[in-house]
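hey all, quick one before standup. I had two proteins in the batch that finished overnight and I want to keep them in one place so we stop losing track of which output belongs to which input. First protein below, input sequence then structure tokens straight from the run.
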Amino acid sequence: MTVNDDSFTNWMHREEIAESMIPIIGKLHREQDVNVLLHSRSLVNKSVVSILKTHRFARQIAGEELIVTETMPFLRALTTLDLGPSQIDIGMLAATYRSDGRGLSVEEFTAEAVAGATGENKIERRASRDVVLYGFGRIGRLLARLLIEKAGSGNGLRLRAIVVRKGSGQDIVKRASLLRRDSIHGQFQGTITVDEANSKIIANGNEIKVIYSDDPREVDYTAYGIKDAILIDNTGRWRDREGLSKHLQPGIAKVVLTAPGKGDVPNIVHGVNHDTVKPDERILSCASCTTNAIVPPLKAMADEYGVLRGHVETVHSYTNDQNLLDNYHGSDRRGRSAALNMVITETGAASAVAKALPDLDAPITGSSIRVPVPDVSIAILSLRLERETTREEVLDYLRNVSLASPLKRQIDFISAPDAVSSDFIGSRHASIVDAGATKVDGDNAILYLWYDNEFGYSCQVIRVVQHVSGVEYPTYPAPAV
């Protein structure tokens, strides 16, 4: 047998193991509401090749590739436990077991590591929480995809309706088609049918009512069997408490805005300040995509090194707010063709930092340049630190933050020397640290932070909605504080 034959045989063996993982992961998800992760990446509904690629990607953050033969014993161990709703990271289980040194078996170690999700400690499965999408644009459709994806266990969040203005001719068919196919994010994973007679879109068995309205005050959601729902406003039309309060109609319990909130509306960045949301707060904002990209790494750097001041420059993909070709626009520069120009514009991300990190006593300034790409942006975060450090120390620290801290769902880490923006389409993290571009000189640090300003931000919005809905389940092994 040749070396090449050995490599191919090894690959086929890994394929076989990954294939056997799929029914175990699916059963844990459906029957026990357990989401199996690998270094914060969900393995639910993933293909054989996707599972193998996720294991392979571990080398970018942990320094070495994970092999399915290492993680499979931990997955099998989970099937022997009386688990409740939770997220369990088998990548972290394998990594921590490797360095444990107590001589425990895989089964003993796993039972100890996830003890908070078993037996008398486990959380009871809750009834699903109704969700309404107000608006069905770029963010709205991605939120719909995520909500449908997460409905697989029958618990958690349940998308009940979308509210839009009535369009001309086959409105619901066209909206369903936009949900089914996306030029950036690809095909919808599943089946979509349209019930025009009853104004419904059925996606993977989820019946979604399409409600037509020009005024949020005109909708009685209880008439559609919707109650105690979270309404996500992704239109950006209203941003203050007075405007967003129009959504608080019968059937709606809370309103979440997918844009920076104004006035006293709390701006929430999941992973940083979501625990500050008061139980009786009915209106809140998820801030902006850029705020979500810079605040988690800014907090991480401030916690470890202290920050005296900073500036963020965002190189941002163009959005629907810009003109495709030169035409009138209320903004000075956004009227120029988005597909042909780099456009200097403003960003509210820097000022929003104060709302998300009120204890950060450091001035943060910011500006933005829109560029001719349709998705994925990069934030260049330049910081003056309270103490001197080295590039190696900063990278080791941020790598560990991405692996084993409470911010590991927000901050990702990549060391690939040839990474470009399209590589991060579909990233579920709020921010990805580019190790190769990072610069540190004494007390000055410059971080290059990639982010999918559509999908990564939508994931952050869903996390906030899960939190305020009481369906955000704990992760095991518990991240280091």
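OK second protein, same deal, sequence then tokens:
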Amino acid sequence: MQGVIKSYDPASKVGVVTDDVARAEHELAPDALEGSIFRMVRQGQRVIFDLDDQGLATRLRLGSEVDLGTPEWITAGGSTT
């Protein structure tokens, strides 16, 4: 998934990322930055991440994915205008 860091506290390593497609908020897993180039992240930073079995964001990394397509919330309701 691709998204944006909404908040992050480097002392506690608690944070939230919002995904680009569903606009859902996901808390960061305690090990979200382990094995990553990140030591910490900042609000507004774009990241790629996975979700673990508990729905927590993990494996944060840089880069971009193949086009994610038009979000379902746009196509479900027809026109957005």
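Flagging for whoever picks this up: The mean pLDDT is 82. The first helix runs from residue 72 to 76.
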